Amino acid sequence: MVNWSSLNTVFLDMDGTLLDLHFDTHFWLEHLPQRYAERYALAPQQAKERLIPMIMAERGSLNWYCTDYWSNRLDMDITALKAEVAERIGYRPHVVDFLNALRDARLRSVIVTNCHPDPLRLKLERTGLDQHVETIVSSHDFGKAKENSGFWQDLQQTVSYNPAETLMVDDSFPVLESARRAGIGQCLAILAPDSQQAPNEGHSDIPGIHHFDEVLPALKEQLALQSKQ
User: Fold this and answer.
1) Under a CB-based contact definition with an 8 Å cutoff, are residues 9 and 108 in contact?
2) What domains are there in the chain, each with its CATH number?
3) What pTM does this model have?
């Protein structure tokens, strides 16, 4: 599924890959509509009917992920509202073991996320995730979402890497397809990004796993081989 011996760098999505997507799903589909209904004196279902199409229309663009954009458009403090449900922020299964194994195998681990810097800080404060990786890059630094081909060119200038020796792990097939078009050597999909939702369907061309325990044995085997050399 992954050829660990050919890798130097592992790019990791954050939400839905390392962290449980349940936080974001709950926020956008439940908590925000509730607060929006209160703010504009709407019934809860009216709020959803107004908000969800508005949000979905931005899917795949940087606006979809941009806290500033939604704060301005809705006239609500999105970062503050996210903090109200911060207790839902948490790791997906086996993530810390996987990140430790990457470090032990001397593979460079870099979080490559579409998350806006404000909620990113909130998530790092809650999880300490930044202590387990080499660095974190937000697409907002480049003004391009990962789905945009130009993102990977800008990333190369910030985090020099050899695409052929790089693995991209993400729960978004559009992002993985974008990475593959940019020459990333290997891609791996996360099929169960949200602990409260059914797993996603797989992709014919991109291998997928539900949790990292499915690839940990092979990674640790590679580590054992390295230790004998």
Assistant:
1) yes
2) 4-20+89-228 (3.40.50.1000), 23-87 (no CATH)
3) 0.95
